[in-house]
Automatic annotation (TrEMBL):
Alphabetized Gene3D superfamilies for the sequence: HIT-like
Domain of life: Bacteria
PANTHER family in UniProt: HISTIDINE TRIAD HIT PROTEIN
InterPro entries with a match to the protein in the record: Histidine_triad_HIT, HIT-like, HIT-like_sf
Catalytic center residues: H100 (tele-amp-histidine intermediate)
SUPFAM superfamilies: HIT-like
Pfam families: HIT
CDD domains in alphabetical order: PKCI_related (cd01276)
Protein name in UniProt: Histidine triad nucleotide-binding protein
Domain HIT: 5-114
Motif residue range(s): Histidine triad motif: 98-102
Any one GO MF annotation of this record: catalytic activity
Length: 117
C-alpha cells in the first residue's frame, strides 16, 4: 500500500501546520479551510475510513476523538461548540483514504447536508 499524503505529513516529508500531536494521533490545519477553525485529526496508523478504524481499533478511534476535544480547547472553540465529521467514500467527498476527522468551528455552522426535495 503506497503512502497517502497524510502519512507523508506524519513522517514530516510534507510540511503542515501541526497544532497538536500525541503518540497515536496528529492534528494539523486544513490547507483549504472551510471554517474559522478547520483542523484535521488523524490517527498515525492508517485505516481507509472511520468504520474500518472503529472495527479494527476502537481505542484508537477514542484517541482521535479525545485529540479533537483537546484541539478544540487549544483553539478556544470547545465551549461554543464544534463539529467533528468523517467523510466516508466518494459521495461524501473523501479524497484522502487515510481516516481523518474534520474539526470545524469558530462561528455558527449551518447544516451540511439536506434531504432531497
Ligand atoms: P477529505 O476530502 O478526504 O474528507 O479531506 C481531505 C482534506 O485534506 C481536504 O479538506 C483538503 O483541503 C485537505 N488537504 C489536501 N491537501 C492538503 C495538504 O497538502 N495539506 C493539508 N494540511 N491539508 C490538505
Amino acid at each position: 500500500m503506497s503512502d497517502t499524503l497524510f502519512e507523508r505529513i506524519i513522517n514530516r516529508e510534507v510540511p503542515a501546520d501541526i497544532v497538536h500531536e500525541t503518540d497515536t494521533t496528529i492534528a494539523f490545519r486544513d490547507i483549504n479551510p472551510r471554517a474559522t477553525t478547520h483542523v484535521l485529526v488523524v490517527p498515525k496508523t492508517r485505516y481507509r475510513n472511520v468504520a474500518e478504524l472503529a472495527a479494527a481499533d476502537p481505542g484508537l478511534l477514542a484517541d482521535v476523538v479525545n485529540t479533537a476535544a483537546r484541539v478544540a480547547e487549544l483553539e478556544g472553540v470547545a465551549d461554543a461548540g464544534y463539529r467533528l465529521t468523517f467523510n466516508t467514500g466518494e459521495d461524501a467527498g473523501q479524497t484522502v483514504f487515510h481516516v481523518h476527522g474534520h474539526l470545524l468551528g469558530g462561528s455558527p455552522l449551518g447544516p451540511e447536508a439536506r434531504p432531497p426535495k
